[in-house]
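Incident log, structure service

09:12 report received: a user says their structure output differs between two submissions of the same chain.
09:20 pulled the input from the user's history:
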Amino acid sequence: MTSLARHLERDAVFKYLLIAPAVFIILLIGLYPLIKLVVTSFQDISMFGEDTSFQGALNYARLFDDVRLWESILHTVLFTAVALPLELLLGYLLALLFLERLPLKQVLIGIIMLPTIISPIVAGSIWRLLFDQRFGPINQLISWLAGSDVKILWTTESHLVWPAILIAEVWQWTPFMFLLLYAALSNVDREQLEAAQIDGAPWWMTFRRVVLPAIMPVMFIAVLIRALDLFRIFDVIWTMTNGGPGTMTETISIYAYNMAFREFEISYSSAIAFLVIVILTVAVIWAIRRVEVER
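09:34 re-ran on a clean worker, output below:
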């Protein structure tokens, strides 16, 4: 072996030694909890006892008969199906607006982005106060417009609780969509847009043939990130309704929390959490492959 080869080998070993601590910490933080979660899901740990012996697929078989679990998954999917397109549409319209010349544009963008830097727990608490039936400014404003005292139970009425949560969620995360789409739209080739305008192409054809292909990579990332966040939504709903009234606003994350920290079904809640991980992993893989096929 030549001196050059030995030098290159030592250099490669040195590089691996440098990154080894970081890799170890990442594996410790990310991989160990997952392994612990899977192991616990095959045990029987609850408030009635701690049996760490292998129980087979007992907890996973229980998932199929748990009506409350599937209701919480349905709540999560339906909320995601409504909130995600709404955030995408509002974010896109805001991005189109800010493409024009506006006075104090940078200041306005900074103000619009403020909700995204607020903790979801704080955002939920803010909206719970805003929707308060007695002292909330929203009810007071409606009373002022109606000319009489109005007390709407936003967070306890079954037909109003989901719209209230939707308003809070869209308010906080539409700016995230706006910022990404604004950056993507700013990089669309202006010459192509001008050529389409000169040719007399309708706006929907210009959007489909010019704008959409240009912003699709960024839009895909934005939609994927928000879809994953919405599917595991917890903070806003917990602070506004605690999953109530009853279990009407109980999502999969809230149900897993209740099973783990209120009913102390540790092993069963681990099975639920692993089910969520599997669902999200499959969804991400499917979405990425779908985009690759379309390309």
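09:41 both user submissions now match this output. Likely a transient worker issue. Closing.
09:42 reviewer note: The longest strand covers residues 44-46. The radius of gyration is 25 Å.
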